[in-house]
Amino acid sequence: MTITSINISAQNKNADNENSILWEVTGNGLSKPSYITGTCHIMCSKDFEMKPKVLKALEKSDSFVMEINYMDPKEMTALQGMFKSDKKLSDQLSPNEANELDKVLADYGTNLKNMDSSSSQALYALISMKAVPCPQTEIKSYEIELLQTALKSKKNIGGLEKVEDQLTSINNAYDLKEVIQQLKMGKEYEVLLQGMVNAFKKEDVHTVYNLFKNDKFMNSKQEKAMLTDRNKNWAEKMPEMMKKESSLFAVGGAHLMGENGIIKLLRSKGYTVKPISSL
User: Fold this and answer.
1) In the chain, where do the E strands start and end?
2) Which GO terms describe its cellular component (predicted)?
């Protein structure tokens, strides 16, 4: 057994006791530590709190890396295009299904006529927006808050995937009819999001992960597309980024834990990844 595998075994043994939204990555030839922070993409301002240790990790890093680089104009154009479709929703459904979707959309304050030229991704986005129990003006995004701080500090900004990659993941996870099934569970999503926000505030990333992949909301195909495959792609890109410069990676909290979570994947590559209580 090599030193590396002993180290990984020791880390994995303690993994169930580890809970933090901030992790330090060292070893495996890195000259400076990098950091990973789990995020809660959207929450009400009353629940929002930026931990000082996360800001400290950003201060110590040369670059700030999100799932998508919101500062790349091409990516922002692609993001806007992601919500429109050349193919009308009503043309993809039977008259009965279209009528049913129209009724479901009434719960989201809209209707099929207004949404007909939208993509299924635009429908999917309605779920999270409605699940947040506060007006749009009071919604905060963890990534955007960190990004604004990073820009003030003149940090390099990067992304782990393209909008096109994210679109492929969502398409692989949910076809139109599966999105409609998700829309019908609107109330349950409100409960789910509140549970995730509460766990996130306690830095209980194990619970965030378990709630997110609950089979009521996500089957094995969807988990593979939304979590596993993306985590593996990111874990392949992160070493080169960390070697080049010290980075703070900000990814959804559900991507950290689990057998195919970012933490285990980086440890399997020989990095020491440890939870940080304070910096």
Assistant:
1) 22-26, 34-39, 43-44, 63-66, 139-140, 156-159, 247-252, 272-275
2) membrane
